[in-house]
Design goal:
CATH superfamily of the largest domain: Glycogen Phosphorylase B
Helix content: 40-55%
Distance between the termini: 13 Å
Strand content: 5-15%
CATH topology of the largest domain: Rossmann fold
Structural class: alpha/beta
Order of helices and strands: EHEHEHEEHHEHEHEHEHEHEHEHEHHH
Strand order of the largest sheet: 3-2-1-4-5-6-7
């Protein structure tokens, strides 16, 4: 008999972000495969999850869960009570924290451990707590889920986690949402950004040091400063912190243009990715690299790095660079000058992205839940 799973979605932020896409995609796929599900969520998400997974038990926590400190405290005491109320067999925590006093088996997703190898590229306010919580999960969770083999290997190397207790489940991508865009979709995004057909290099993600945005800015300047019609650099997304971003932007020559439109709606992302000359994601570290996969699914030529799991995602279907400005500039300039190479990468990326699905991810998660339940028994 399949175990009943309580998934704690209370950590999903209001803007959804990568965690929201992971939780939403996973829940829908689990529901389609007949998983016995219950979901704990914030009050603002109650109706959303009732619509996504009809028939599942959805339990909204107190209104104060919008505050991170309150949510973490509730997770320790309130979540186990919800698990008892819905008669769960396994609790899944989709991000690094867990209730340490839970009597039920727990499965915790550890998205990445880059903060142990490079703590300086993470928010110093959160680093200490996240490291402590990750160590606790690595030691006490019944099973761990890693989104890539590279992240699993780092869990073993850095935290001495038991490899026999770690399951790898790649993220998926919603191919209905992230698709090759029509001309109308790309025109809509271009006009919305005020570009009106002007070529651009796209970035989507948080402004965090590990995302390497300052060096992307500097590399783009090197690739474009002597061009008669240089592409605009569009830095979409929000959140995070990186003091060097503003410093790098201050060095951009007047003839070059940078746009920072903030968050883009999901409906605009296919046109944003698919309409770009290049989607650049020269990250210094990832747990998986969901924006890379989503851009690939939209048929975009992608430039990224060989750091961590990114080659597991991109394979031979993306272009690679090192992380320094001169290297980014050379790789980016080469792609801008080679339309046939960009078209080749776009086709290869779209084809490779079809190998990733939330359905396949859900199957790996269900296997992990079953192992956790059997361990408890």
């Amino acid at each position: 008999m399949a175990p009943r799973i309580l998934l704690d979605a209370t950590a999903v932020p209001a803007d959804r972000g990568g965690l929201g896409r992971y939780v939403d995609g996973l829940l829908v796929a689990l529901h389609e495969q007949g998983a016995d599900l219950a979901v704990a969520c914030q009050r603002a998400d109650e109706e959303r999850y009732e619509g996504l997974i009809p028939g599942a038990r959805v339990v909204a926590g107190p209104a104060t869960l919008v505050h991170r400190a309150t949510r973490l405290a509730w997770e320790q005491s309130g979540l186990p009570r919800v698990a008892e109320r819905v008669e769960a067999d396994v609790i899944h925590l989709p991000t690094y924290t867990m209730p340490v006093s839970a009597v039920l088996p727990t499965v915790v997703t550890i998205h990445d451990v880059t903060l142990f190898a490079e703590p300086e590229v993470h928010d110093p306010v959160r680093t200490s707590y996240v490291k402590s919580a990750t160590r606790t999960a690595a030691r006490r969770a019944t099973r761990l889920i890693a989104p890539s083999h590279a992240t699993r290997d780092e869990l073993v190397r850095v935290l001495s986690a038991d490899p026999d207790h770690i399951d790898v489940a790649y993220h998926g991508v919603d191919h209905d949402v992230f698709h090759r865009p029509s001309e109308a979709e790309t025109k809509y995004v271009s006009d919305r950004l005020g570009l009106h057909g002007r070529p651009y290099v796209a970035y989507l993600g948080a402004l965090e040091p590990r995302k390497n945005v300052p060096n992307l800015i500097r590399g783009w300047v090197l690739a474009c400063k002597d061009r008669p019609d240089p592409p605009v650099l569009v830095l979409a997304g929000g959140g995070g912190w990186d003091d060097e971003v503003d410093a790098a932007l201050a060095t951009v020559p007047l003839e070059l243009r940078v746009l920072r439109p903030g968050y883009l709606p999901w409906s605009a992302l296919p046109g944003f990715f698919g309409g770009a000359l290049v989607v650049a994601h020269p990250s210094r570290g990832e747990g998986f690299g969901l924006p890379v996969l989503e851009a690939m699914s939209c048929g975009a030529p992608v430039l990224t790095t060989r750091r961590g799991p990114l080659p597991e995602v991109g394979g031979d279907a993306v272009a690679y660079t090192e992380t320094e400005p001169s290297e980014i500039g050379a790789a980016l300039g080469g792609l801008i000058d080679d339309p046939s190479r960009r078209a080749e990468l776009a086709d290869a990326a779209h084809a490779r992205a079809q190998q990733f699905s939330w359905s396949a991810s859900a199957k790996e998660h269900m296997a992990s839940y079953q192992r956790a339940a059997e361990t408890s028994r």
